[in-house]
Amino acid sequence: MTFRPLFAIAAVAGAGVAAYAAAPQARDAAPDAAVTRAIANPARSEANRARDAWRHPAQTLAFFGVTPAKKVVEFIPGGGWYSEILATIPAKGGSYTALVTPRSVEGTTKMLAEKKLTGTVATLDGATGASTVPANSQDVVLTFRNIHNLTMGGGTTAANAFKAWFTMLKPGGTLGIVEHRLPEGADTALEAKSGYLKTSTVVKLAEAAGFRPAGASEVNANPKDTHDHPEGVWTLPPTYRLGDVDRAKYAAIGESDRMTLRFVKPK
After folding, report:
1. N or C, which terminus of the chain has less Cβ within 10 Å?
2. What is the dihedral of CA 249, 179, 72, 54, to 10 degrees?
3. Distance, CA of 55 to CA of 74 (rounded, Å)
4. Kind of pairing, strands 3-4 and 212-217?
5. Residue 22 class from Cβ within 10 Å (0-12 exposed, 13-18 middle, 19+ buried)?
C-alpha cells in the first residue's frame, strides 16, 4: 500500500495527484487482527469475498485506523459489502453505525438483520444536514464510492453531509473516503455524469467543512482504468451497464480507479 501526504493536493488543487506523487512515503499500517478475522469470516458471501482483490479491505481499513475499540460510522452501506466486515469488528467499547437517509432506514435495518449483523441505524437528512448521530461521539466516519452521488444532484447536499460528519466526529476523529477518481486534467463537466470525481473536488468539500487533509493512499488505484467509458464508471464491473457489449474488455480493466483519502477533525 502506497501512502502519500495530502498537503500538496490541498495547496495546489489543479495539480492533484501529480502534486504529491513525489512526496515521501510513510510506513504502511498493519491491519488490526480483528479486521483480518472479519475479512476472513466465512459468513461473508462468496460474491463479496471475490471482490476483495479490487477493494483491498484490510489495507484500506488499516489506513483509516479502524480497530475494535473505535466507534465507526459507515455512510450509505447499500447492499452491505463493507457492513459484513465493519459490523463484526467492534469490541472493547467500539460500535458500528450505518448512516442512511431517513427513507432508507427500513431497508438498511432489514439488510443488517438478514446478514445477522449487529449495529445501529442512524439518519442524515441531506436537505438540512441534520443527523441522529450525537455530536462529538464517533471515532471514524467512512464512506465508500458515495461522494459522486452527493455531488451529482447539485445543491448543498454534499456540503451538508460533510458538515454532519464533522459534527459527529470526536476532535481528532477520522473521515475516510474511497471514491472513483477522475484525473485532475480531465474536463470537470464529467463529474456531473460519469461517477468519477477529481481528488481536488473532494478535498475542497472536506476542507470547507473544517477537516484537515491527513493522507492519501494508492491502495485502490487501478492504472488500467482510462476513465472515459461510454456509461461512466458504471460501464465497469460490477455494474456492466452495457451488458454483454465489450464485456471482456471491461472485465479485463476491472473495478474503477479510486482515490483513498483520510481527513481529521482538528483537536
Report:
1. C
2. 20
3. 16
4. antiparallel
5. exposed
Give the residue carrying C-alpha cell 490541498: 10
DSSP state of 98: E
How far is Cα 248 from Cα 78, in angstroms, rounded to an integer?
A: 26
95-129: buried (b, 16+ CB within 10 Å) or exposed (e) per residue? bbbbbbeeebeeebeebbeebebebbbbbbebeeb
pLDDT, residue 78, reads 94
- Rounded distance between C-alpha atoms, residue 213 and residue 260, angstroms: 12
- In residues, how long is the chain? 267
Nearest of 152, 127, 120, 140 to residue 234 by alpha carbon: 152
Task: Look up residue 108 and give its amino acid.
Answer: T
Rounded to the nearest 10 degrees, what angle do helices 199-208 and 157-168 cross at?
60
Distance CA 233, CA 106 (A): 28
CA distance 32 to 65: 9
- Tell me what pLDDT residue 7 has: 47
The number of angstroms, rounded, from the C-alpha of 171 to the middle of its chain's C-alpha atoms is: 20
Give mean pLDDT in consecutive 10-residue pieces for the chain, a chain of 267 residues.
Answer: 52 41 51 94 92 96 97 97 97 96 97 96 96 98 97 93 98 98 96 97 98 96 97 97 98 97 97
Q: Return the CA Rg of the chain.
A: 18
